[in-house]
Amino acid sequence: MATLILGGGSQIGLQLAKLLGEAGKPVIFGSRSGTRVPEGTLSVRFDWDDPATFGAAFALGQKIDYVYLLGPSHDHDPLLKVKPFIDLAVRKEVKRFIVLSEGGGHTEKGPDSKKANNLIKNIVEKGPVGFIAVQDIAEIAFKAITDVESLPNKEPILVGPELVSYQEVAAILTEVLGREITYKVISVEEKAKRYEQLGLPKEFVADITQIEESLDDGFDVKLAADPRTIRGKLGIRQWIEQNKAAFV
């Protein structure tokens, strides 16, 4: 009864694989690059842009009951690529899909964006954000696989244990790192241009910036109050302290 982790090379995928491994649950890694595969873990090449790779995990001969699914992150309509795989997995009698969907743009590079110039840029002026740690997301995905009845519902909303502004994040970074980190509000147009320079499609960029703009209207405040919401455990200060070395 293996779990197939798609987007296995992601930080969440790696953390989920660790939790499953510690619990003695078999894991199959599916990733485009084939790098960052935990030692002793079965892995296959999986690429959302190459449907020929969709059946590789099932060809290994292990019964796959669960799929952790991280869809193509830069597609405006990811279902176009995801549905053919889901149809195949259903035919292979997969019991449950654990799907991670994003409420806004993010990067798993973590500290990298703060190392170069000690400056954080975004379009959010004062709106609080429910930053949630990779570990917390992975733990909830783990429960969805091993103890789904412990979750409050089948479509939980995940937010961090606290709501903090970008200005507060900059202040905490300054205190913990011992050097000044500043936050600069930029225009929607400048942020969109930065996303487009990263190669993101214009439709996707429009979605991201719209969600980021909504933070100033209390978007994450409303999410935090939603009865479907699960709050993470790791606060922003604790996360920065744990990852302090990566900011150097």
Automatic annotation (TrEMBL):
- Reading the lineage from the top rank, the first entry is Eukaryota
Task: Give the InterPro entries listed for this entry.
Answer: Ergot_Alk_Oxidoreductase, NAD(P)-bd_dom_sf
Q: What is this protein called?
A: NAD(P)-binding protein
Q: What is the source species?
A: Coprinellus micaceus
